[in-house]
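Final report, closing paragraph on structural work. Over the funding period we assembled a curated collection of sequence-structure pairs, and we close with a single example.
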Amino acid sequence: MRRTFIIIMLALGFANAALAQEGKTKETVEAIRKHYTELKQVTDRMVAAYSDKGVDVDGPIEDYYDEPPAYFETIVRQNLPATGPHKETFRFFYYEYEDYEAEGGPEFWRKIHLATVAYNFAAHKYYEEYLFDEEGELMFIYARTCDTNMYEQVDFRFYFDKGKLIHSIIQGRDREDEAFQPIPMQERFKPYVEQYTRYAQTVKDLYDAIDTAEHF
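Its predicted structure, as stored:
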């Protein structure tokens, strides 16, 4: 009887721990979504200030809506074997820090916040986003890719906590004029997690190289 009681208590303990972890994961995911939504509103306005909307980028600061454009943009063009002309556009939005009490005078520095990557292979278009926290840890990945083995387009959303994947959403559709439908995580999709996580570091390294080389 005592042994049965201990087993029951252990089972209840594991169940409570699992529920607590589930609640923590949900809170983290919701916090990331809120942060991402608010940030995108800002970055979209930044991009609009440089787009062809009649805004004078050399004009008064109020012409930049609420925020002045403050991001790096790098475009790579090349002719790839078998697929032809290739264009890849990187946009890097960053955190800005100021220390006016630093020894030797004020100091200013930046860290990557959000990176967007848009590119093509032949007629297929791809788009990715990588969101980082203030410590440089990966928080979120969004990627739209082509998966011709099953769907015309697949959307991935990966949520991270301290670099560890905690939640994923996958959706697919057969044609661009159709709505996306949920897809359960499948074995064949798991390599995408590693692929995009690894590329997030490449994107971060590219940002650091540009930031270091910038002429102030």
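The longest strand covers residues 84-99. Residues 2-50 form the longest helix (49 residues). We thank the funder for supporting this effort.
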